[in-house]
């Protein structure tokens, strides 16, 4: 009976959900690490929305090293058993749009077309956030008291390491060890994949030094860009060769080492650059020690006038047990609602779940998505958002 009433109510809320996702997209919350304004303005809107719906809302803001406010929200619906909380954890910040010429529409002006809402942050992570919010709204409008406290954690800084987001909240002690944590920040199109493990993460920066000069007189210069290109190629080949084992638990079974970003060199074509800066994003299988990876990087750079800086270093925590309560509950709901037989596994990493696992608290990652995160023309399917809201709501009443 609960299932039919809840799913019907969420379907009635579909238009409101679409409107709210459009509003989410329209407020720029690009992470300040990438030159954006941060989460505060979007958090202001979300706080007002949650309070109007009837949630009990706590706000946890902190300033980053540059004095920018980083905003986190906790919203609660009290449950029958108030000793524990089912938390659905989504993030407010987004990555930049990237090359605007690759977008068919303005990334911050949402467009609805063919069961899709387009815009930066639509899938990563706005669609899941809106689904979780309206799952709770459906429960409140039906006067359904959840089995446990139904909690939403809308957090900052996920795209750049979570120092001012989930790590900040964990350090403040707002979560309890017996709580359950669902992070809808990865998944697949069918919705039958539950993530229980993540790889280690290593981001590093390399500064290559040379000697600037006129491009017509290369013998008087030392081309840092050419040196850097050679180093990138050697790092790519060396790291993939040395750390080449597979682990079939993971959706991508290999460790990955991707050169992702370079900083500006010179403004004009006819000057040889004397400095070149590039970055790597490494997602490393848990069997490897990140110190071994760094040692390999240092050996490639040795004697080449290059400086290494570690930007992010997060060793993989132990996986969530496949038979943990939330995995079992989520599997049961997906079987009942969608007739899905789920599979569990791991992904490249980077979600908030890793920080709960680091504390020894089981956390799972699940959602139904098209995997358009960080791409131009990012979108969220409306039907997936609505169906996921049903899952979140039913999890709240699952015994």
Automatic annotation (TrEMBL):
- Which Pfam families does the entry link to? M20_dimer, Peptidase_M20
The UniProt entry, under Gene3D superfamilies, shows: 3.30.70.360, Zn peptidases
Instruction: Enumerate the transmembrane spans.
Output: none
What keywords sit in the KW lines?
Cobalt, Hydrolase, Metal-binding, Zinc
Task: Keyword check for Transcription regulation, yes or no.
Answer: no
Q: Which domain of life is it from?
A: Bacteria
User: Where does the record place the Peptidase M20 dimerisation domain?
Assistant: 196-305
Q: Which cofactor does it need?
A: Co(2+); Zn(2+)
* One GO MF term: metal ion binding
PANTHER family per the UniProt record, alphabetical: ACETYLORNITHINE DEACETYLASE, ARGE_DAPE-RELATED DEACYLASE
Q: Which family does the record claim for this protein?
A: Belongs to the peptidase M20A family.
- What this protein is called in its record is Succinyl-diaminopimelate desuccinylase
Protein species of origin: Thermotoga neapolitana (strain ATCC 49049 / DSM 4359 / NBRC 107923 / NS-E)
Q: What is the lineage of its organism?
A: Bacteria, Thermotogati, Thermotogota, Thermotogae, Thermotogales
């Amino acid at each position: 009976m609960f299932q039919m009433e809840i799913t019907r109510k969420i379907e009635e809320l579909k238009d409101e959900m679409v409107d709210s996702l459009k509003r989410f997209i329209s407020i720029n919350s690009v992470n300040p690490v990438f030159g954006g304004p941060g989460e505060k303005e979007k958090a202001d809107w979300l706080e007002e929305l949650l309070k109007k719906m009837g949630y009990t809302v706590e706000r946890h803001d902190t300033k980053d090293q540059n004095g920018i406010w980083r905003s986190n929200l906790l919203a609660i619906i009290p449950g029958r058993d108030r000793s524990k909380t089912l938390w659905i954890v989504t993030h407010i910040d987004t990555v930049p749009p990237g090359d605007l010429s690759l977008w068919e529409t303005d990334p911050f002006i949402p467009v609805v077309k063919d069961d899709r809402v387009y815009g930066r942050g639509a899938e990563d992570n706005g669609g899941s956030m809106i689904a979780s919010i309206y799952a709770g709204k459906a429960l409140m409008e039906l006067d359904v008291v959840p089995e446990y406290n139904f909690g939403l954690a809308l957090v900052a800084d996920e795209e750049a390491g979570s120092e001012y987001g989930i790590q900040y909240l964990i350090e403040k002690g707002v979560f309890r060890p017996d709580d359950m944590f669902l992070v809808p920040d990865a998944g697949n199109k069918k919705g039958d994949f539950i993530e229980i493990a993540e790889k280690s993460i290593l981001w590093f920066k390399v500064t290559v030094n040379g000697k600037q000069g006129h491009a017509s007189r290369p013998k008087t210069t030392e081309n840092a860009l050419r040196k850097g290109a050679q180093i990138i190629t050697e790092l790519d080949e060396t790291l993939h060769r040395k750390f080449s084992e597979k682990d079939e638990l993971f959706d991508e079974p290999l460790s990955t080492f991707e050169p992702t970003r370079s900083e500006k060199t010179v403004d004009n074509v006819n000057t040889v650059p004397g400095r070149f800066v590039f970055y790597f994003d490494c997602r490393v299988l848990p069997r490897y020690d990140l110190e071994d990876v760094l040692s390999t990087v240092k050996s490639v750079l040795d004697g080449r006038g290059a400086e290494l800086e570690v930007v992010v270093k997060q060793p993989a925590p132990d996986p969530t047990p496949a038979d943990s309560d939330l995995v079992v509950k989520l599997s049961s709901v997906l079987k009942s609602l969608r007739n899905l037989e789920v599979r569990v596994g791991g992904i490249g990493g980077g979600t908030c779940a890793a920080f709960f696992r680091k504390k020894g608290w089981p956390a799972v990652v699940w959602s139904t998505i098209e995997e358009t995160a960080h791409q131009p023309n990012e979108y969220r399917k409306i039907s997936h958002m609505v169906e996921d809201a049903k899952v979140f709501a039913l999890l709240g009443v699952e015994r």
